[in-house]
Specification:
The chain has 13 helices and 6 strands. The protein is an alpha+beta fold and 350 residues long. It has 4 domains: 6-41; 106-172, Orthogonal Bundle (Arc Repressor Mutant, subunit A); 175-194 and 267-320, no CATH class; 199-266, no CATH class. InterPro entries: Terminase_Gp1_N_sf, Terminase_ssu.
C-alpha cells in the first residue's frame, strides 16, 4: 500500500475547501485517522468561505451614457442593483401580523394543561390568584398567593403571558402610556363639568321692595285659584313678575341675607368631552330623584400610583393564630441522621 502524501493531505485539510470526510476519501484514509493526524501535527484548518447569495451574484454590467443639456454625459447603469433583503434566521419565529388573533399553543411553550389553563384565565382579568384557582389548583389563602406567584414567575408561563399581552397590544393598538393617560384623566377630571351645586337667587332677591316675585301672570293666577279652592288668603303680586331662577343672589336681600338658595344642576351629557366624558358613567333615576353615576376617582389615582411604582404591596406570612412562623435550623448531623433513617426504611432505594 502506497504511503499517503502528507503534504497533499495537509494542503487539502488546511485549505478548508473540502469537508473533512471528502478530504479523507480523496486520499484513501479514514476520517478518524485524518482528524488524529491533524491534531498530532497541529494543522490549522481555514474557515470555509461564505457563499455569496444568488441575489448579488451578478457580473458588472456595462454602463451607458446619458446626454445632458450642458454637453456632459452621465454614467448610468443599464440595470438597477437589486435590493438585498436581510437574512432572517430560520430558527426565529415569524412576526405575527397585528390583525392576527393570538392563540395559545401549549406545545410551543412547553406548558402542561394546568399551566395553559392558568395563562388563559390570567388574561381575563390579570389576577394571578383568581386565575390560579379558576385553573383548578387547590390552594387557599396565603398559600394560594405564594403558589400563584411561583407559577406566574415560571419562565415558560411568563413568556406565554408576555407574548399574549404583546399580541393584544398590537391588536388593540393600546400602549401602557395610553392606559396611564386614561386613568390620569379620570383621576383629575372636574366633576363640576357634569353636575354642580349652585347658589342662586330666592323669590325675594329681585322683587319690588324685596317682595315675592312671580314668573308671570299665569303662575300668579294659578296660585290664586289654588288658594281660593283651599279657602286660604289670596297671594299678592306686589313684587312683580319676571322671576329668573338662574340669576345670582341679591347681596342686599333681607330674606336670604344675600346667600340665595341651593339648586342642583346637571349639564347635558351629550356635550361632555375629554376627561369629563371618561369620568361620566351614566345616570340612575329612582324614587329620590336623578343620580349621576361617575367612575371612582380615588381608585383611578391609586392605579396611576401603582403604575408609577409609588405603591408597593407587601405580603406578611404569619403562623397559627397570627403568631410568628416557627423556624427550625438543622445541623449537618441532623441531615445525616435523617438520611440514615431513610436508608434503613428503604433499603432498596438507590
Amino acid at each position: 500500500m502506497a504511503k499517503p502524501d502528507m503534504e497533499s493531505i495537509k494542503r487539502d485539510y488546511c485549505a478548508g475547501e473540502l469537508s473533512i470526510q471528502k478530504v479523507a476519501d480523496k486520499h484513501g484514509i479514514a476520517k478518524s485517522t485524518l482528524i488524529d493526524m491533524a491534531k498530532k501535527s497541529k494543522w490549522v484548518r481555514q474557515k470555509k468561505p461564505t457563499k455569496i447569495p444568488d441575489q448579488i451574484k451578478q457580473k458588472s454590467r456595462p454602463k451607458k451614457t446619458v446626454g445632458r443639456s450642458d454637453g456632459r454625459t452621465n454614467l448610468q447603469s443599464s440595470k438597477s442593483i437589486p435590493q438585498i433583503e436581510n437574512q432572517i434566521d430560520s430558527n426565529c419565529p415569524a412576526i405575527e401580523s397585528a390583525d392576527d388573533d393570538w392563540t395559545l399553543n401549549p406545545d410551543e411553550y412547553g406548558l402542561n394543561d394546568m399551566q395553559a389553563r392558568f395563562v388563559n384565565e390570567y388574561l381575563k382579568d390579570l389576577n394571578r390568584v383568581a386565575a390560579y384557582k379558576r385553573a383548578g389548583y387547590k390552594c387557599e389563602g396565603q398559600q394560594a398567593y405564594a403558589a400563584a406567584s411561583i407559577l406566574y414567575r415560571n419562565l415558560k408561563v411568563s413568556r406565554a403571558i408576555r407574548d399574549a399581552l404583546d399580541a393584544r397590544e398590537r391588536r388593540t393598538q393600546i400602549t401602557q402610556d395610553d392606559v396611564l393617560k386614561m386613568w390620569w384623566e379620570i383621576a383629575t377630571a372636574d366633576a363640576n363639568q357634569i353636575t354642580e351645586l349652585r347658589r342662586l337667587c330666592c323669590r325675594h332677591c329681585w322683587g319690588f321692595g324685596f317682595q315675592y316675585q312671580w314668573q308671570d301672570a299665569v303662575e300668579f293666577e294659578e296660585a290664586s285659584d289654588r288658594a281660593t279652592q283651599a279657602k286660604k288668603p289670596v297671594p299678592k303680586d306686589n313684587g312683580g313678575y319676571g322671576f329668573d331662577a338662574q340669576l345670582d343672589p341679591n347681596p342686599e336681600c333681607p330674606r336670604c341675607n344675600g346667600m340665595g338658595v341651593s339648586r342642583s344642576h346637571f349639564h347635558d351629557t351629550r356635550d361632555l368631552r375629554g376627561a369629563a366624558r371618561r369620568l361620566y358613567a351614566g345616570v340612575k333615576e329612582g324614587k329620590f330623584g336623578l343620580e349621576v353615576i361617575t367612575r371612582n376617582q380615588d381608585d383611578a389615582l391609586k392605579m396611576v400610583a401603582q403604575h408609577l411604582g409609588m405603591l408597593k404591596n407587601r405580603t406578611e406570612l404569619t403562623g397559627a393564630d397570627g403568631g410568628p412562623i416557627n423556624q427550625v435550623n438543622y445541623t449537618p448531623e441532623d441531615y445525616a441522621k435523617a438520611q440514615a433513617a431513610l436508608e434503613n426504611q428503604l433499603p432498596d432505594l438507590d
